Amino acid sequence: MKTLFIVASVMAVLFLAVPNKVEAQKRNATKTTEAHSQKAAKAPKIHDFKITNIKIIPFDSQTGEFQEEIKPNDKRSFFNAFYISLFVVVEISGQTASSVGPEDFNLERKVEITVIGDQRQIAKKIVDINHVDLTLGSGKFFVPVWLYPLMCSDVKINARITGQETVSTMKRTVPFFCGE
Fold it and tell me: Is the alpha carbon torsion for 174, 152, 63, 125 positive or negative?
């Protein structure tokens, strides 16, 4: 009988203690979630980079001279221009050194430039970019690509920045034609 009384007492203690422990765990979980939410709300904003321009400059390999830049609304096209190369410069803008924090240095940002011409990929360049590139100067970084001659259809230049919260993209097209 004494054993039965001890077992019953232990069961009563466990029965009363376990629900309190579960409630305590729920309370702690709620407090932890609230603390994480407050930390997330106070977390500093990571500054996204943006592609701000794609500069396209034709190069005449017969004269050895650069021509005038092809602006975004330029109607110029090239017909049987087997001697024209294109010098493409992608401009990336971001925050300068005075406005960035340590969280900005932990991302793995890349700029990817893909060029399609004659229904195939004629160039692809992927460059790791980081705030060191932008903070040393004016908040801008430039990625060049050289496109060699013999283009006979529209040249489509696509640039994008990945590895950050917002993907930045820009596209440009230069008309090339070949025929008799």
Answer: positive
Whole-number Å distance between alpha carbons of 170 and 38: 36
User: pLDDT (tens digit, 9 = 90+) per residue, 9-36?
Assistant: 545 444 555 555 555 555 555 555 555 5
Q: Which residue has the higher pLDDT, 71 or 22?
A: 71
CA 92 to CA 163: how far, in whole Å? 14
Residue 130's CB: how many other CB atoms inside 10 A? Answer: 18
> What's the rounded Cα separation, in Å, for the pair 154 and 6?
89
State the pLDDT at residue 16: 52
Cβ(157)–Cβ(171) below 8 Å: yes
Place of tokens 């602006």: 71
